[in-house]
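Q: I'm writing up a methods section and want to include an example of the input and output format. Could you take the sequence below and give the corresponding predicted structure tokens, formatted cleanly so I can copy it straight into the document?
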Amino acid sequence: MRTGSTNTATVVAGDGHTIGYEVREPARPGDPPTTVVFLPALGVPLSYYTRLFDVWAGGGRRVVGVEHRGQPLSPIAGIRRGRFGYREMVRHDLPAVFAVPQVREAPRVVLVGHSMGGALALLSTAAGLVAPHAVVTIATGTSWCAAEFGALRRAQRHVGVRVVRAITGTLGYWPGHRFGFGGRQPSTVMRDWAYEASHGRFRLHGDPFDYERALSEMTTPRLLLGIDGDHLINPRAVALLARRAARAERRQVRVPGVPVDHFSWARRAAADVAAPIDHWLDRLQPS
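A: Here is the clean output for your methods example:
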């Protein structure tokens, strides 16, 4: 697949932290392209999504991939001392990225996020901190225990959330690299994650803003995409979050003959996941 040029750059967020991002230009010249601003999942480096970016660039879209704090393009000194959470990513990082020329001057911007990245995309847009023309989430849903099917699964999720909170509270950070979930994360990130997982609503540490009300009043076109084979975020979890996001549109993706899960779709079935997103975007009237 032919792809365009790739460049990396940095921007300084509102609190002084340096955020790295990658710009992938479309493979073919033409009219000003739709720009996709992409946010990874918790603890997943931007490089994991290379095949997805290849698909979009090959189809004529520009991609601006944003590296979360603590990942290779956005390093921080001492994750254990890190005090950032969802608030900083929503209120400082995303607005800074939306101010860079490739996004600010784009005729049409679509904000896309995977898992936690999707939650950040919804929250920042709902709060009016960024103004994309549309929001798309991939494998993003509530982590609330009630979204699980069956008493045993709900109990397992409940215990899992309590374990994450206990370990994070004891160590002062989350050693996700040892547990296969989330990578190393500061305590505030996991506190924000655990609150939503425990209560089924967002409340960001140190931020009095009512994000749930803002979500319920969203008017920006929004699509929540579920992945068959995802055992972390099932269709009910996607549906519950879609309901909270002013009854957002939903799609469920099934990849025939290719086993995928919450993460592996990005490498095994990037084109299959990108296709319904592109079809949905093509149906929208540009603002």
